[in-house]
Amino acid sequence: MKSNLPHPFAFVPRRGKPNLLFVLLHGESASPEQLFPLAKKIAQAFPLAMVVLPYAYVPVPVPGSPEGQVVYHWVDPSILNEHNRASLVAQALPGLIQQIQQIQVRYELSGEQTALGGFSQGACMALEASLAQPDLAGRVLAFSGLYASQPGKAPPATLLHFFHGSEDQQVLGAQVQSMLAHLGELQADATLDTASEVGHELHGTLINQAIVRLTTCVPLRNWEAALGALAASAPEGVQAASSGTTLH
Q1: pLDDT at 230 over 60
Q2: Rounded to an integer, what distance in angstroms lies between the CA atom of residue 200 and that of residue 205?
Q3: Would you give the DSSP letter of residue 233?
Q4: 247 inside domain
Q5: Do residues 129 and 101 make contact, with C-beta atoms less than 8 angstroms apart?
Q6: Cα 94 to chain center, whole Å?
Q7: Where does the pLDDT of residue 232 fall: very low under 50, low under 70, confident under 90, or very high at 90 and above?
Q8: Measured between alpha carbons, how far is 53 from 26 in angstroms, rounded to an integer?
Q9: Is residue 207 included in any domain, yes or no?
């Protein structure tokens, strides 16, 4: 964690050692409190999970704020544009990855036991971090956000869940559909849930659907492994059915 930032918020189990880690990344011009509704739902659904909400790395004072209010960005908004977005995000990734890895080491949690979540710019950071460090997280929950640039490969061990509002004017539905089609070509394990009449917001409907995905969605790699084991144990001449896509 950078020394000039407040400490992250953390939801911890009332009893027992955490067996899951969720790291939730807020959007641009915001703070961790933005993701409290998601954090609380996760803590309710997974009582033994640890939920950590760090501050983004670039504090920006709010002009004219009488109380010296500060908001946070993952990349410096004063120099951000469409041409340098990917490079600025890449520069911010090592610090985020290190921060997550330090938590994993301290609480003896693996990447498979870790999920990253984020809203808007935070979703972008979560997606890019899991791509840059393939063993960092088993799942990513991306709300109203996409990769900084079109990925050239799929994360081999990460299940991607995208959640989007149909009325989002900042991240258009066509962009999301295009990204999902590209990820399909890369054979990524990804899902998309869209809420009607919802804009660029962390809506309760999408939060509830994220819990459904977390509790019911089987990663494709696990499904294929199970089918492989079934095929290996089947009598000679009997073939297992094709796995197709992820079971949801």
Answers
A1: no
A2: 13
A3: H
A4: no
A5: no
A6: 16
A7: low
A8: 8
A9: yes
Cα first-last separation, the chain:
37
Contact 153, 183 (CB under 8 A): no
Q: Which residues are CB-neighbours of 67 under 8 A, at least 6 positions away?
A: none
Number of continuous H segments (helices) and E segments (strands) in the chain: 6, 9
Provide the pLDDT confidence category of residue 99 given band limits of 50, 70 and 90.
very high
CATH of the domain at 140: 3.40.50.1820
Give per-residue pLDDT as tens, 139-157. Answer: 999 999 999 999 999 998 8
Distance CA 146, CA 143 (A): 8
The 3-class secondary structure across 143-184, one letter per residue, is ECCCCCCCCCCCCCCCEEEEEEECCCCCCCHHHHHHHHHHHH
Q: Are 130 and 25 in contact (CB under 8 A)?
A: no
Per-residue model confidence as pLDDT tens digits over 15-64? 889 999 999 999 999 999 999 999 999 999 999 999 999 999 999 998 87
Q: How far apart are CA 149 and CA 199, in angstroms?
A: 22
Beta strand 9-11 with 49-53 is antiparallel
Q: Please return the burial class of 219, using the count of CB atoms within 10 Å of its CB with bins 0-12, 13-18 and 19+.
A: middle
Backbone angles phi, psi at 154, to 5 degrees: -100, 145
Q: Is residue 236, in this structure, part of any structural domain at all?
A: no
Domain containing 106 equals 9-217
* Residue 166 in tokens: 């149909």
